[in-house]
Target: Triacylglycerol lipase
Amino acid sequence: MFSLRKPVVAVAVSTVALLMSSVVGATTALADPLPPMPPDQNQLPDLPKEPDLYRHLPVPDPATDPWYAPPPELDSMANGQIVRTRDVGTYVTGIPMPLTTRQILFRTTDVRGRAAVTATTVLIPPVPWIGSPRPILSYQEAIDGSAALCNPSFTLRAGIFKEITLLAGFLAQGFAVAVTDFDGLDGTEFLTFGEGNLVLDGIRAAKNDPALGLADSAAALYGYSGGGSGTARAAERHRAYAPELRILGAAEGGVPGDMVQIARHNISHDEGLANFSGPANFTMWLALANLSRSYPEVFDPAGYLTPEGQELLKNVRGRCVWTSALTGAYRPVSAYLRPGKSLDDPAIHNVLVEQSLGQPQNLPDMPVLMWHGIWDELLPFPDSIESTVDAYWNGGVDLRYATTPIPEHVAADLSVLPAAETWISAMLRGLPPGPRLRIGI
Model:
């Protein structure tokens, strides 16, 4: 990924020097340049973790709530089979009427093929749906954490779900909305195809609960950034893992597609605070914190991180996105690697390749809408996504893809949000998806 910062700064410095020389007749040489900044420019003190910050909220931490405990017969259960349910209260801004909110703990399969449990929270508005079964929008939030209370089954009850305004728009239209803890109870599925399994089993669980009346409902998928990862991986897993589900479409933006390129970007560093890579460094720390749980034999911190890096990784564990970002930003992983070690190590590289999108055997079998910002500082364009888009386009996926020239990761999402919400709502109503399309840079 190229950066305009260094050329612009160089031109500006040269221009200022020339003007100063002409004005004051300076003949002395310019001062020696300042020494380069060290790669670690995070000057924040050690921050409390979200479990400490949220402990006074009137909702129990899922890590200690017995409702989340797996049953002894888990291995013999089917994917999407319900373990237990409960009715809960939620806080949804912009919906001035009571919602039916049901939480379902269900059996699923993690990225390593092991039986696991996770939860989905299904919200149903008191708006009649006439003419067909009420459709389900599977909404994937950008959870981006490694603690159980980062998950929406906690944050929706506690009133701190960070994408609540987006949910309200879908609920106001009368859709049932399923919000699954698709990264697992403690983040082990983050940026892996395990996310796709959990999303699809969340839809299965919602359809399996007779109290919700959704047994005959079709579904669609929606998410951005970390939620775009869960959405894209569910779309790719659908054909092999849950072909019986009728998925009408997938809208996914800011998608982490090529994990190898994302890793290379996020371990790089430029000097100083005004650079593209610095804010993104936390995403790699978060990925390593979670991958070291799902692939401990490959991502053993002692094998590739310095003692300081191991301490930093330990510090990132157990955090949600807010303090993870503040803890890991401007701390490139490359500054904490043992001599001779890199994320291009064959074993690490193989896992990153396996978990990348766009492989021929995984192409989505539903209409897809994708969008990506060309100035995305977290998931750089084109490296993190264009190989996935190429694979989809050349593989005949029913794709609509657009880039947006908006700087910053979240702003790029907001620029496309109205169109994306309109498109996925049309899919849920059974309307045609429109022609295949690829526009932008």
